[in-house]
Amino acid sequence: MASTFPASDGPAVSLRGVSKHYGALHAVDGVDLEIPRGEIFGLIGHNGAGKSTLFKMMLGLVPLTQGEIRIGGAQVGGRGFRAARRHLGYLPENVVLYDNLNGLETLRFFARLKHAPLAQCQPVLERVGLAHAGNRPVREYSKGMRQRLGFAQALLGAPQVLFLDEPTNGLDPQAIRDFYATLRGLQAQGVTVIITSHILAELQERVDRLAIMSAGKVQAVGSVQALREQTQMPLVFELQLGAEDAPAVAQALEAVTGASPETLPTGLRLRCPRAQKMAVLAALAPFGARVHDLKMLEPSLEDVFFGFAD
Q: Sheet holding 209-214: strands in order across?
C-alpha cells in the first residue's frame, strides 16, 4: 500500500496559516509547520494548548477555520485526500474498543474499515506483543494491553504517517521501550511519526525534532539541543573534589565566569551560561586528578518546555 501514497519530494506534513476558532476561542491560531518524511516529530504543550485539535485537523476530522494542510502533498479536504488518508494511522488519546470482541476480531474490524488486508491482523498483533491474547475478549485486557491493541489498529494498512496521541498511557517500562523500538523500525522504513506525550523525559531522547505549543500557537520548533540553545538556559557543573581543594577551584571558576560556585558536601556546583562551557573546562584542567569527578548537566526537555511555554 505504501507505493500508492502520494509521491513527492516535499514534506510528509505541511501546515500553512492553520487556525481553528470556536467563536472567540482560538484553539489553534496561525500554525505554520513542516515535517519531513521519515521523521519522528514530537508535539508538546499544556492541556488546552491545541495539540489534539491540530491532530484532528491533520486527519481531516475537524474542518479548518483558515489555512491549508497537506499530507504527502495531498490537501486535507481536497480531492486527493481520500486516497491519502488510507495511508495514515491514528491512535487517539482515549482508545475505545469493543469489549465483547477478542483482540484478533478487533483488528479485523478495523482492517475492514481501513480496507487493509485481513492477513495483516495476526502479524500486527504479534508485533505489539499480543499474540498470546488474540483470542481473549477485550474486556479481559489490562489498560496497557488495550493501549497496545489501539497501537496495533493504527499500524494496519502499512501507514506512511502515524499520528500517536499519548500512546504510552498505561504501558510498563518494558512495553514503552518496545514501543519506541517499533517506532524506530518504522522510521527506518520511511514512516513519519507525529507523537504527543505529557511525559517529557520519555520524549527527550526519542524524537528528532519537536514543536512546543501554547495558547494555540507554535512557540518553538527544533531538536531538543537546538531548543536548549534558544532558551539560553545555564549549564550546571557538579564537581567532586576534596574539601581542601574546593576554595582554589571555586576561585578559579569565579575568575572565568563571574559566578560563585555553590558548596556541596562532595564538592562544588556551578551554573554558568552555555558560552562559558569551554572556559570552565580550561579553568579546571590545571587541577588534574584533584577533581575526582565532573558532571555537566544540560537543561531537561521539561526545563526547555517551561522556558518557552510559561
A: 88-91, 161-165, 192-196, 40-45, 209-214, 217-222
Name beta bridge partners: 18: 31
Please give the C-alpha separations between residue 56 and each of 34, 91, 133, in angstroms, as whole numbers.
17, 11, 31
Gap between the Cα atoms of 83 and 187, Å rounded: 22
Q: Where in the chain is the domain with CATH 3.40.50.300?
A: 2-227
Residue 212 and residue 305: Cα distance in Å, rounded? Answer: 7
Residues of the chain with CATH 3.30.70.120: 230-309
Per-residue confidence of the chain (310 residues) as pLDDT tens digits? 344 555 557 899 999 999 999 999 999 999 999 999 999 999 999 888 899 899 999 999 999 999 999 998 899 988 888 888 888 999 998 888 999 999 999 999 999 998 999 999 999 999 999 999 999 999 999 999 999 999 999 999 989 999 999 999 889 999 999 999 999 999 999 999 999 988 898 899 899 999 999 999 999 999 999 998 888 889 999 999 999 999 999 999 999 999 999 999 999 999 999 899 999 999 999 999 999 999 999 999 998 998 886 6
Question: Is domain 2-227 annotated with CATH 3.20.20.30?
Answer: no
Parallel/antiparallel/unpaired status of strands 262-264 and 267-272: antiparallel
- C-alpha separations of 305 from 194, 225, 285, 308 in Å: 18, 12, 34, 5
Phi, psi dihedral angles at 91 (to 5 degrees) = -115, 105
The CATH architecture that domain 230-309 belongs to is 2-Layer Sandwich (3.30)
Q: With the C-alpha atoms ordered 23, 210, 302, 92, is the resulting torsion angle positive or negative?
A: positive
